# Entry
Amino acid sequence: MLIAQLTDLHIKPSGRLAYGVVDTTAYLTAAVADLTARRPAPDAVLLTGDLVDAGRPEEYARLRALLAPIRCPVYVIPGNHDDRAALRAGFADHAYLPKGDGFIHYAIDDHPVRLIGLDTTDPGEAGGNLCAARLDWLAEQLARAPARPTILFLHHPPFPTGIAHMDKIGLIDPAPFAALVARHPQVERVLAGHLHRSIQARFAGTLASTAPATCHQVALELEPEAPAAFYMEPPGYQLHLYVPETGVVSHTVTVGRYPGPYPFRDETGALID
Ligand SMILES: [Fe+2]
Ligand SMILES: [Fe+2]
# Structure
């Protein structure tokens, strides 16, 4: 099974640039074109939050149009830039989304890997939270299928990254979540967004990671007092390949055109010297 993870799309209304600089629509268009041209094609796409920039209905409408070329199931969770009600309305035809106005969390049992989407958002807050109610729900879900390989995906990563201004708006108290995950070895991975770059950490007996954004990347700045900033580094997304014998292997895709492919060997089979 091949799972694509696109994150932090930050779609704006027509004619608006994110932070006055970033044409997030053009970047997502390029990422979707890269994704849909890949062979083998992904079996599922996870969008790990900050789907749009300001939770506006028109932004979700624009996002839906941009995602239209994707032929496999797409699973969405909110980030701190999203709005639950507008997200639900924008994805009203996505039957897996829970009804009502509560947390947007769900488990998908249709694939070789069980996919559990979590909602770390608290309205009006930039930081993330997995409160007792959300953890109780997750505990019940994990207890239902202890033998099925499972990926958890959420917006806020459950570990501090060393990028101080982002850690200030990280997941509040990840310890109870870590304790729960540690009791469930079927959890193959914990996939997050929010950081706008690729970062990995050992977490609760598994591996937790963040993926590059499809648009702008948060500055790799590990000085505690460094100001919050971003760069237009090459954008990307990740491909998580699940093979039963080996588990999940993750690749970071860089979106864009680069010289190549070049051969290693000449027509006689010798390495080119
Ligand atoms: Fe973001
Ligand atoms: Fe975020």
